Amino acid sequence: MKIFKLPIFILIIYFSDINYSYSQEQAKVDSLRNILSHTIADSTRVNTLAKLAWYYSNENPDSAIIFAESALELAIKSGYKKGEATAYFYCGLAQRYAGNLTEAITSYQNGLELSAVLKDTFRLVQCLNNIGIIYDDRGDYDRALSYYLKSLKMKELINDSLGIASSLNNVALIYEMQKNHIKALEYYDRSLNIVIDLGHKKGEALLLSNIGLIYHDKQEFDKALEYFNRSLNISKEINNKTRISYAYMNIGIIYYYENKYDSALFYYDKSIFLQKQVDDKFNLSTSYRYKGETYLAKRKFSKALIFLNQSMDLAKVVGANGHLRESYLLLSKTYAAVNDSQSAYKNHKLYTAIKDSMFNEQSTRSMQEMQTKYESEKKEKEIEMLTKDNELQALKTSQQESQIKKQRYLMLGIVFILVLAISLIYIVYSQFRFKKLANYELEFKNDMLKMINHDLDRKNRNIAESINYAQRIQETIMPTQNHLTKIFPESFIYYKAKDVVSGDFPWLMQIDKYIFTAAIDCTGHGIPGAMMSMIGYFLLNDIVGDRKIHNPAIILEELHNGIKQTLKQDENLESNDGLDIAFCTINKEEREVQYAGAHRPLIWLHQGKIEEIRGDRLPIGGLQYSNRGKEIKFTNHKLKLNKGDSIYFYSDGLTDQIGGPKGRKFQNKQVQEIILSNQDKSMDELKDVFNDQFIKWMGSEKQLDDVIMMGIKV
């Protein structure tokens, strides 16, 4: 019996929590078709055709190919290079689902090359990953691993945490296929740590199950059972019936291997119940087969025949030849056990036929390659023999005419020497002229380069002056340590920009007895991040100061809407710019704190213990949720602080910094340990500790992102 393996991460979204119903998907397709019929702009039409190709790729790959190729043709015709790279990717996706793996690789390679030219890292990573998947499908694990590692490296460069977790899982699966359990567990653990930090339950459930598979292969069944149960609990928590059924099936198999057949049957029945609910015929066929095999082990042959026949019937319906082959083999064994040799022979013959047919395509291809190689070698030998015959014939002829040719060769030699001498003279003269012209051209190019360099220096100075001026403006309007200290004497702002200007910034406002403060991390860094920071700053001033909204959750919802309106994101389907934020409303007199967060946590040091209050995994700005019909609603947390308690919030530039002895991220756990171990120090001293630890951790590595951290003690 084979353990049930969860699928590899594929396509565009690797840990996606999206579970569209049919009606939702159809509504989205209808919406895209409506856009297509009413839009004139070529770029919008290209992007819409590409999205249609994505929606159709799984269910109807032939239609997906038509949409993707139409997008490619229009992108090339209109000169829309980014759309061309996108179209190549979706051509590869559709071809892969259609089973045209060679064509899929060609499309992905074209998309890869164009994405590299355009410096489109997101699309480049997608192409790398999906080429790796195709080689994985083919069983070419070395090539698959090479592409997965390239994809992983690119994701690490752009700090794509979810993408890094996905690639680590894919690499681990390759090592698992190669039976390198130590490396597989190393990469699974790294991926698991990331998804736990991100709070991504679906990815956590999948990785726990995959780790369980490793321990099953190692025949450490207790350990495997531990991980399958952890995966089951998380799958129940997020109510993912498909993954719950996977977990039940794998737990049943462990009990089968431990000869606990009744327990195995109990979990198979639970898996079957869920698979019927979600109409998962493919895996229902597997569960019936496992159940039949368990009854065979219990020597309850009549029940074994019932479930094995059900498995066989479903396998025929869904076209699962692998399942059908295994069912025929088990039926053959069962009939043999009850001395029905005729039925045993019949089913074993069917098993052999399917096994041979599945092997036939590969065998035919191998034979064709061998035949081609044989024919090529045969032709080379024939040519070699003909050459030798011609040489022998030429030797005989030369001996007969040797005398006549001596005089002819003498005359030809003299003529050749004269021609050679004239040619040498001409070559020397030509090289002299060419060298002279080349020197003139080189002098001209050097002069042009000096002019260009001078112009570039001037432009660089202008750009540097503009950036420095932008820095002065940003520093003038943003709150400083002095502003915060006047309100909270025991507090700090730790700010470390990656570039001259920053996308991370603190925000502070006092109205009556309430103090409003936030740490904000805008999309990007440098000039783009700084521009986003100005938008966020003035929107918060309007929401809190002018409109008098004081509830943090509502403030974040209004901020989300304000950014969408400012950036016109409902019109621009490709705009996903926004920000992450931790926002607090503090009643200093009552020591009451209200907190809401978007992707950022609040750390509370309370009575000598650390408590992390996680923000919502919802966006501020962008169309990620509005495109899916989801309403943005944030959670408002209320805290009652004691005297001496402190709160901290910070951007992900702190925790995502690569460094340390093993080249890993700084991470939330390390932040909490620093706060806990230095709780007796003043806030100024704690700020210095964080700065020293961050610099030490970074070492020779480059700073990856802007950093902002705020700490307040009441």
Short description, anyone?
With 714 residues, the chain is an alpha+beta fold.
Task: Please outline the helices and strands.
Layout (H helix, E strand, L loop, with lengths): L21 H17 L3 H16 L3 H18 L2 H17 L3 H18 L2 H18 L2 H17 L3 H17 L3 H18 L2 H17 L3 H17 L3 H17 L3 H17 L3 H17 L3 H18 L2 H17 L3 H137 L3 H7 L3 E6 L7 E8 L2 E9 L3 H21 L5 H15 L12 E9 L4 E7 L3 E5 L2 E5 L23 E4 L5 E5 L1 H4 L2 E2 L4 E2 L2 H10 L5 H16 L8 E7 L1
Antiparallel strand pairs: 1-12, 2-3, 3-4, 4-5, 5-8, 6-7, 6-9, 9-12, 10-11
Helix pairs in contact: 1-2, 2-3, 2-4, 3-4, 4-5, 4-6, 5-6, 6-7, 7-8, 8-9, 9-10, 10-11, 11-12, 12-13, 13-14, 14-15, 14-16, 15-16, 16-17, 19-20
Task: Give a written overview of the molecule.
There is one protein chain. The strands form three sheets. This protein has a five-stranded antiparallel beta sheet with strand order 1-12-9-6-7, sandwiched between helices. With 714 residues, it is α+β, with helices and mostly antiparallel strands. A hairpin with a 2-residue loop joins strand 2 (504-511) and strand 3 (514-522). The chain has helices spanning 22-38, 42-57, 61-78, 81-97, 101-118, 121-138, 141-157, 161-177, 181-198, 201-217, 221-237, 241-257, 261-277, 281-297, 301-318, 321-337, 341-477, 481-487, 526-546, 552-566, 652-655, 668-677, 683-698; strands at 491-496, 504-511, 514-522, 579-587, 592-598, 602-606, 609-613, 637-640, 646-650, 658-659, 664-665, 707-713. It is built from 23 helices and twelve strands. The model is unreliable at 2-24 and 361-395 (pLDDT under 50). 68% of the residues lie in helices and 10% in strands. Helix 3 packs antiparallel against helix 4 (81-97), helix 5 (101-118) runs antiparallel to helix 6 and helix 15 (301-318) runs antiparallel to helix 16. Among the domains are: 280-359, Serine Threonine Protein Phosphatase 5, Tetratricopeptide repeat, CATH 1.25.40; 381-477, no CATH class; 481-713, 4-Layer Sandwich (Phosphatase 2c, domain 1).
